[in-house]
Amino acid sequence: MKKTFTIIFILCCIYLFANPIIAGPRLAEIYRDGEDWQITFYNMEVLEFTLDNCAISTNSGFSEFNDGIDFFETVTFTNEDLQDSLYIDWESDHIQSYYDDGNGMGNIDEWSFAPIANWSNSINPLFNGQSIRHFEPMMDYDFLVKDSNIEGGLRIKGYLNGYVYDTNNEPLENAIIKFYRTNSWLSNIFLPDTTDATGFFSSETFAKNYEVSVIMNNEVLIDTFLTVEPDSITTVVFYTEYDPVDARDHEIELPASYYQLTNHPNPFNPSTEISFQISDFNDQNLEIQIFNSKGQKITNLPITQSQNHHISIEWDGCSIA
After folding, report:
1. Please, are residues 41 and 75 in contact by the beta-carbon 8 Å criterion?
2. Measured at the alpha carbon of residue 183, what is the angle toward residues 32 and 107, in degrees to the nearest 5?
3. What is residue 116's three-state secondary structure?
4. Does the model's pTM come out above 0.85?
5. What is the pLDDT of residues 48-106, one digit of tens each?
6. Which three-class secondary structure state does DSSP give residue 301?
7. Which domains, from first to last, does the chain contain?
8. Count of CA atoms in the C-beta half-sphere (13 A) of 264
C-alpha cells in the first residue's frame, strides 16, 4: 500500500512539473447564443478572489471586468460584466484570458476559432446553441457541447458514420479509419475503426475536430479534417484511388490449341526456363505476362516466331526491380 501511494505521489509530481498550475482564470467553456456569448472561467487559485485583477480580449479589443465579481471555483459572465463590450467573430477570432499577479497583466489561457481551411490548432466555428468546453480545466483537450445550459451540458458525444470506396467505386473492406484529435496535447491518441464488407464504419466519439485518415495496407489513402457534431450523426463518403489487385481479376485467354511442356521453375535459382508449344502462330504480338503471388503484373516477355512452334524462353527474375 505504501509503495502504491509512493508511486502515485511521484506520478503526480511529474505531472505537475510538466504542467505547472498557473494562477488565474482558465477558459472552461464558451457558449454561443446567436451573436451574443457566455464564457465560464475556472479558478486555478485555491482561495476565492474577484475578477478585479482579471481581463479578457478578443480580436475586437481588450476589457477588464466590473468591480466586485466574486470568483471561487467557476464564474460565468457576459458582456454586461465587462467594462467594455467585446464582439466574438465565430468564424475567426482569438480569445485570451489575463491575470494580474502584481507584476502586470499576463496571458493565462487562449482559444482560437477558424474555418476548416485555416485549421492548425484552432477550434471549428460554433453553431448557435453550441459551446466548446475543456474536458478538464488543467488539460488542453476540448469538446463541443450542444446544450443551452453552459454549466452542465452532458451530450458531449456524436457519431461519425461513413463509407469507403476503391478506385472502381466498389466498397473497400478492412480499411482502417483513424481519428486524430486536434487542438490538444493528446493529439497523438487516436480512435481506430475498420470498414465492413460494405465499406461502412461507425464510431461514437467526443464531439470535436478530428484529423481523419483512411488507411489500407499501411498506405494513407485520405487525410482530412472533420467535425463530429454533438448529439448527432455526421455521415461522410470517402472515394479513394486504391486499386485492389486480385489474381482472379486477370483473365488470360489461352490459344485454341497448345501443348504445355515440362517446366520446373525454382524460386531458389536466379532464372528459369519457360517452354511450351502452340499449333497456330498467326498472332505476331504474342507475349508472356509474368505475375507475382499477389496477382500484380511484373513484366511482359515477347515471343518470337519459331518454325516448329516450340517456344522456350529463359527468364531471370533478378533483373526486375
Report:
1. yes
2. 75
3. helix
4. no
5. 788 999 999 999 999 999 999 998 888 999 999 999 999 999 888 899 999 988 888 88
6. strand
7. 21-146 (2.60.40), 157-239 (2.60.40.1120), 247-319 (no CATH)
8. 1
Return the pLDDT at 311.
73
Sequence-distant (≥ 6) Cβ neighbours of residue 59 within 8 angstroms:
89, 92, 93, 94
Cell matching residue 116: 476548416
Q: How many CA within 13 A on the CB side of residue 287?
A: 8
**Tens digits of residue pLDDT in 4-61:** 555 555 555 544 444 444 567 888 889 999 889 999 998 877 667 889 999 999 999 9
Tell me the C-alpha distance between 63 and 42, whole Å.
18
**Amino acid letter, residue 81:** D
Q: Which amino acid would we find at residue 79?
A: N
For residue range 214-258, list pLDDT tens digits in order.
999 889 999 888 888 887 888 999 999 999 865 345 455 555 544
Note the helical H segments in the chain. 2-18
Strand ranges (E), 47-154: 49-50, 54-58, 61-64, 70-71, 74-77, 93-100, 105-113, 130-134, 142-146
Name the nearest CA neighbour of 88 among 96, 240, 272, 135: 96
Strands 93-100 and 54-58: antiparallel
**Grid coordinates 461507425 are at which residue?**
202
DSSP string, 10-35: HHHHHHHHHSPPPPSEEEEEEEEETT
